[in-house]
Description:
Elements: E1 2-9, H1 18-27, E2 36-40, E3 44-50, E4 63-65, E5 68-76, H2 79-86, H3 98-107, E6 117-125, E7 130-135, E8 144-147, E9 151-155, H4 158-163, H5 173-182, E10 196-197, E11 202-207, E12 210-216, H6 232-250, E13 257-260, H7 265-276, E14 284-290, H8 299-308, E15 312-318, H9 320-332, H10 343-353, E16 359-361, H11 366-370, H12 374-379, H13 408-411, H14 415-423, H15 430-456, E17 461-463, H16 469-476, H17 491-500, H18 517-523, H19 525-534, H20 536-539, H21 544-552, H22 557-576, H23 586-591
Parallel strand pairs: 13-14, 13-16, 14-15, 16-17
Antiparallel strand pairs: 1-3, 1-9, 2-3, 4-5, 5-6, 6-7, 7-11, 8-9, 8-10, 11-12
Amino acid sequence: MCGIAGLIYAPSTPPCAAATLDSMAQALRHRGPDGAHVARLGPVDLVHTRLSIVDIAGGDQPLRGQGGTLVANGEIYNDPRIRDEIGPGAFHTGSDCESALVMWTKHGADYARYLRGMYAVALYDATRQELLLSRDPFGIKPLYYTDTPAGLAFASEPGALLQAGLARRAVAAPARAELLQLQFTTGRDTIFPGIRRLLPGETLRVARNRVMQRSRLPALPAVAPSALLTSEAQALDRLDAALMDSVSAHERADVPFGLFLSGGIDSACLLTAMARLPRTAPLRTWTATFDARNAANEAGAAQELARSAGAEHQTLRITSAMVWRNLPAIVACMDDPVADYAIIPTWLLAREAAKDVRVILSGEGGDELFCGYGRYRAAARPWWRVRKRMWRRGMFDGLGVLRDPDGPQNTHWRDGIATAEMAAHTAPTALARLQAVDTAEWLPNDLLLKLDRCLMAHGVEGRTPLLDPALAQVAAHLPDTLRTRQGKGKWLLRMWLAQHNPGARPFAPKQGFSVPIGTWIAQDGGRLGELVARQDCIAEIARPDRVRDLFTNADDTRAGAAAWTLLFYALWHRTHIRALPPAGDVFETLSA
């Protein structure tokens, strides 16, 4: 896992100062603490910071070959197969990312369709003087770009573009409204004016500093109704083969790895698959528990699962004091903001895991591919279409907190979701349409972004075996009856787990893994509410008296979630717009 950045210059434009490239490299050092390299190639500059995972001695980037130069952030899981098919003579390193360069040599700008993995790639074609920017179909790895007077600049994180002075530290009001109401932002535009995301699966062809062509690979394959897997036994066989193959590929590393284990279905499936594979070292697993008395807790179930698999297991007990001490640093890593309070345990677990491993497997994607959310079960009912829309109500709707609640900034927050819904209208069922929307927006712009930033903050690579093309093929071929049944989602995953690890109790009621953020805020609600209400960025968008009320009533579910969102935004704005570093714990930082 790495960080990448660079520029492609406008014609007759002098290249930027070396200090600009050094600034981007420094901003991405947490993504690649093992070394940084810069290639100045005339009309293009490329920056790479490396986290050594595969071919530790020989895998430094940029990689060069037959007129192309590449920097990449990611893992190419079909690298062994590509090497077998092409032959060893085409390769000069053991880096799996070299397969992307070789596939470009063979297939040109269509190279990404031959890759299986998670990746963000920048590839310079010296013959055509073109730059290709590519991102994997699920959007597991991030990539951003912006137009500058010198040319088009790109980076793994917006923070690198901001730190190098290539983009403005300002807030785009439409994206801010999305963040407040959805807790994440959608589509191509970020919250920073002028900084845009490559969409999942997208490849941009850039020449003379302009985007000349866009192409896109789908995350979910289209399947004709006649091709659905109607046999449960056949579906289970297909799932078993795909899951074992994916987990085996995702374990490939020259460094120690482990697993985040929640006690839920997704991570239990991963642990069960990992336990079936040969290994030379014990499995390592981590889970979190919370000090709040009313917090849902799956730590006991996770510990029992780990014991049955012979894993070395650690449980991290997260306290309110720990949260307040670390929250400014946690929020600081979320430059592309996600106000999902799951960033708290993810960041803290990553810090703990970084003491022992450099790679973590995680269960993101299981809910989206195999239908784990309650809204999917509702969608399977024939009357769902007339009942409600997904994300029909925003976080602050009806709370009387925001200024000008009926203004355009606060009434169009759902436009990005509506666009995704329109794009998903060809999906064959209401349930499949919801999956398509989640896969297009919620998955890459909340869940995967959160995992990427929180792990990379500690130099740990996050891998998601459930987000694999082979598994996506299986999931896409399932009829609704194998996705949800008897009021339970992820039916096929549950059946597989019952077959291979019945002790995991796959049909037991879910205990949940909910961060008790409202309880923690309520304990210090008066002090926190006053500090948050006093921030200029909060006073600009919200009524201070109502902000204070939210915090003092944060043990109410809606009030607690809204209070958390404002707390997140206040800390985020201080770091990423005002460019002020954390100044101690959350109270000291907001008082500074």
